[in-house]
Write a structure and sequence with these properties.
The complex is a heterodimer of chains A (about 110) and B (about 110).
Chain A: E1 5-7, E2 10-13, E3 19-24, E4 31-37, E5 43-50, E6 65-69, E7 75-79, E8 88-95, E9 104-105, E10 109-113
Parallel strand pairs in A: 2-10
Antiparallel strand pairs in A: 1-3, 3-7, 4-5, 4-8, 6-7, 8-9, 8-10
Chain B: E1 3-5, E2 10-14, E3 19-21, E4 24-26, E5 32-38, E6 44-50, E7 56-58, E8 64-68, E9 73-78, E10 87-94, E11 103-104, E12 108-113
Parallel strand pairs in B: 2-12
Antiparallel strand pairs in B: 1-4, 3-9, 5-6, 5-10, 7-8, 8-9, 10-11, 10-12
Classes of the chains: A mainly beta (about 110), B mainly beta (about 110).
Chain lengths: ~110, ~110
């Protein structure tokens, strides 16, 4: 596709269930980010993948959160044992390389934990 | 580590009036600076960026920003706003020492009134 694609666009899950959020970056982009945007809040950095380097996981809020990027392309963010405070919009972005290049954002996945 | 401060959570302004959205950053190394805009229910879009060179940067939709190293600021300005400029604006920074990951401020909601 022409842009960053995220799926699903909306996800409602019960507290305690696991969820997987998917991000398809723009083809050829080596850098991929996950951010979390809570209602009325800014963008909280979660994790950053750059090429074959070890990911920067410094923003993951707890060990219930994990992410992987297979083959340097598609990424999956997994939240285990979801809690109500996990409710937010999860945004994915990709960029062609690191260092001053624009990050292109997807439309996000709105996660609601009930 | 880098950080970004957007002191104004909301800025109301009348249509055709000038506006300035403030952004201050903290970093011990040289940084790249960005402004993104998020329209309701949409992803983030790049407005402009500063990498090096001229400290006055022009972006899309008539916006511009000025990098001031001594004041560690990167304020966004527009001489005359339109109703359609109503959106959330995010300032962001990246730096080589942090693997270039984008760190965002908490955002400023620009509310343009007729």
């Amino acid at each position: 596709g022409a842009g960053v694609s995220q799926s699903p666009s909306n996800k409602v899950t019960e507290k305690g269930k696991d969820v997987e959020l998917r991000c398809d970056p723009i083809s050829g982009h080596t850098a991929l980010y996950w951010y979390r945007q809570s209602l009325g809040q800014g963008l909280e950095f979660l994790i950053y993948f750059q090429g074959n380097s070890a990911p920067d996981k410094s923003g993951l809020p707890s060990d219930r959160f994990s992410a992987e990027r297979t083959g340097g392309s598609v990424s999956t963010l997994t939240i285990q044992r979801t809690q109500q405070e996990d409710s937010a919009v999860y945004l994915c972005a990709s960029s062609p390389r690191h260092g001053g290049t624009e990050a292109f954002f997807g439309q996000g996945t709105r996660l609601t934990v009930v | 580590a880098q950080s970004v401060t957007q002191l104004d959570s909301q800025v109301p302004v009348f249509e055709e009036a000038p506006v300035e959205l403030r952004c201050n950053y903290s970093s011990s190394v040289s940084v790249y600076l960005f402004w993104y805009v998020q329209y309701p229910n949409q992803g983030l879009q790049l407005l402009l960026k500063y990498l090096s060179g001229s400290t006055l940067v022009k972006g899309i939709n008539g916006f511009e920003a000025e990098f001031n190293k001594s004041q560690t600021s990167f304020h966004l300005r527009k001489p005359s706003v339109h109703i359609s400029d109503t959106a959330e604006y995010f300032c962001a920074v990246s730096a080589p020492g942090s693997s270039y990951k984008l760190i965002f401020g908490s955002g400023t909601r620009l509310l343009v009134r007729p």
